[in-house]
Amino acid sequence: MINSLGTLSAVIGSQWGDEGKGKITDILSEHFDILARASGGANAGHTIFVNGEKHVFHLLPSGCLHPDKPIVLGSGMVIHLPTLLDEIKTLREAGIDVVPRLHISEAAHVVLEYHKKIDGVVEERRSGAGGIGTTMRGIGPTYADKAHRIGMRMGDLKKDEGEIKKYFEHHANFAVKMYDISVNSEIELPQLFDAKKLLEKRITNTVSYLHKALGKKRILIEGAQATLLDIDHGTYPHVTSSGTTVTGALQALGLPPKELTSCIGVAKAYCTRVGAGPFLTEISGKRGDELRERGGEYGATTGRPRRCGWLDIGELKFASRINGFTHLNITKLDVLDAEPSIPVYNGNDVTELPGWQESTVGKTDYLQLPEKAQEYVEYIEKESGVPVGFIGTGPGREEMIVRSN
Ligand code: GDP
Ligand code: IMO
Ligand code: MG
C-alpha cells in the first residue's frame, strides 16, 4: 500500500495539530528519497519513538533519522537558527550528521530573537480581546515582517558579515519603532554568524532542487500545524500565521498541485487543542483530565496541557474537503481502550459509539483489533468518506497498523 502513495506525498494535520504527523512521517520516510518540511517553524513539535528513544523535532523533518536521505527546509518556513543548530547538534551527538544532506531554501525567513519578544508584546496588547495562546516562538511577527516585505531571509546569510550586520540593523530598526521593544545585537549577530558558518553552503534554490527530482525521486512532505490552524481556513483569529493545508505546503515548496500523488490526513481518534479558540467537543472535568493523562497530552514545544475533546467528524469532513485526503491515519486509538463508550460529534449531533475496553496497544494487524475498535474505525471511514490506511496503536515506530486497501 505504501508503494501506491506515489512520487509526491504529503502528511497533513486535520485537526488543531499534534495529531501524530511526526510518527507517520518517520515510518513512511524509509520508502521515500527526499524529505521536506514546507512551512511553519519551531512552533511545531513532532515526537517520534525509535527503539524506545524519544526524539522531538521542531524544524527538521521527522524522517531525518533515516540515514542519507536529503532534507529540504522549504521556502514557506520561518527558521529560528539557534533551534536549528541545536537540533543538528543533538543529532551529531547521536552520530548522525545531517548538514551534508540539508537543502535550505534561500527564500525561507529568519526568526530573530526580537520576533519572540514581539510575540509576547502583541499577545499582551491583544489580551483584552482574548489572547491567541501562541507558542511564543516569534512565528506571527516573522510572517508579519515577511508580509510587510521587511524580513530577513536565509539567502541573506550569504552576504559578508558587515553586510549582514547592516541589513540586520536596518530591519531591527523597524521593529524597535513599531513595537517599542529593545533589540540586543550582541546576542542576535553572533547567532547569525554561527549559522552562516555552518549552513551557508547548504542554502540554495530548493524549488530548482525539487523540480529536478519531481517524478524521478519520491518526495515526502511533512506538514506542520494543521488544517484548523490554517491562516485562511482555520478558526481565525485562533490560528497560526501560515498556510497549513496541502495546498499551503505545495505553495511553500513551489510544487505544482497536479504533481501530488497522495495526501494523508492525520487525525487523532479523539481531538486536542493547545492555546485559545473554539473547541466544540471539548471535555471538561475529570473525564477530560483522564483522557489527557492517558494520551500524555502535553505540548512537545511548550509543555502546556492540551485541551481534550471527542472526535468531530464535521471538522474531519471539512479538512478532507479542503485537502483532498486520499488516506487517513487515525492515531492514538489505544488511548481510547478504557472508554466504556465513545461520543463522536457527527456534524449534527453526538453519537455514542460502544467502547471495546480491551488493549489495542502495539497491534499491527487490523484483524487483531477488537471488533468494536474496528467498528469505530469503519464509522470514521464511512462518515468521512476517506479510507483509513493507517491506525496508530502506540507511540513507537512499530506500533502502527498499515491496511492493505
Ligand atoms: P505532531 O505534532 O502531529 O507530530 O504530534 P506530536 O508529536 O506533537 O504529538 C503526538 C504525540 O502522540 C507524541 O507524543 C507521539 O509520540 C504520540 N503518538 C503518536 N501516535 C500515537 C499512537 O498511535 N498512540 C499513542 N499512545 N501515542 C501516539
Ligand atoms: P505541530 O506541527 C499544536 C497553535 C498554538 C496557538 C496557535 C498560534 O506540532 O502540530 P503560533 O505560535 O503558531 O503563532 O501559535 O497555533 N500551534 C500549534 N498547536 N501543534 C502545533 O504544531 C502548533 N503550532 C502552532 O498553540 O494556539
Ligand atoms: Mg506537535
Name its key features:
single chain, 405 residues, alpha/beta, Adenylosuccinate Synthetase, Chain A, domain 1, Adenylosuccinate Synthetase, subunit A, domain 2, 2 domains, eleven-stranded mixed sheet, three-stranded mixed sheet, 11 helices, 18 strands, 21% strand, globular, binds guanosine-5'-diphosphate, binds 6-O-phosphoryl inosine monophosphate, binds magnesium ion
Topology:
Layout: E1 8-13, H1 21-29, E2 34-40, E3 46-50, E4 53-57, E5 71-80, H2 81-93, E6 102-105, E7 109-111, H3 113-125, H4 139-148, H5 161-179, H6 185-199, E8 203-204, H7 206-213, E9 219-222, H8 246-253, E10 262-268, E11 271-273, H9 285-295, E12 307-309, E13 311-312, H10 313-323, E14 327-331, E15 341-345, E16 350-354, H11 371-384, E17 388-392, E18 400-402
Parallel strand pairs: 1-9, 1-10, 2-5, 2-9, 5-6, 5-7, 6-8, 10-14, 13-15, 14-17
Antiparallel strand pairs: 3-4, 11-12, 15-16, 17-18
Helix pairs in contact: 3-4, 5-6
The structure holds guanosine-5'-diphosphate, 6-O-phosphoryl inosine monophosphate and magnesium ion.
